[in-house]
Write the structure tokens for this entry.
Amino acid sequence: MLRDKSLIPLSHQHQHALALCVRIDRAQPIPGADLPAWLAELTQLVEGEIKIHFAAEEQFVFPAARRFPELTTLIDELLADHRSLSKLFSRAESHSLSAEELPIFARQLAVHIRKEERSLFERMQQLMSGAELAALGAQLEEALKKAEQACIVPGVATRMKPR
């Protein structure tokens, strides 16, 4: 299903995070000397987008979706994902996330994003009216204003290497 324009800003941010997840996956095993660069890039993404993204979802998207009983369990799962991922973000920011844990984190983040895109957003588009989606889109536009609007350019240590 084509993404409704009201949800596209969140989907763009999902693409930024998924790009990092793919690069982390393809960089395995990450040399210990490169870990600080990966954690710095992850921290930049968290500060520039993800914290704002999570807040917007929790303030606007999840309450809108919770109006539909069939989405309640999914919303509970997504909120639990946010809590779990936020703990990992904090560990990345404090540089206490190990090179072995980084790909596990990337998989968790990718699964979470796909759950939102394929399950939550798809179903919301089916259940909500155009006017409801437009109102949600206006709220998201305002909430996401402070987020960075571009993908992070990888550093030398975090660039995708040829296979």
Summary: Residues 8-143 form one domain. Residues 35-66 form the longest helix (32 residues). The chain is about 70% helix and 0% strand. The mean pLDDT is 92.
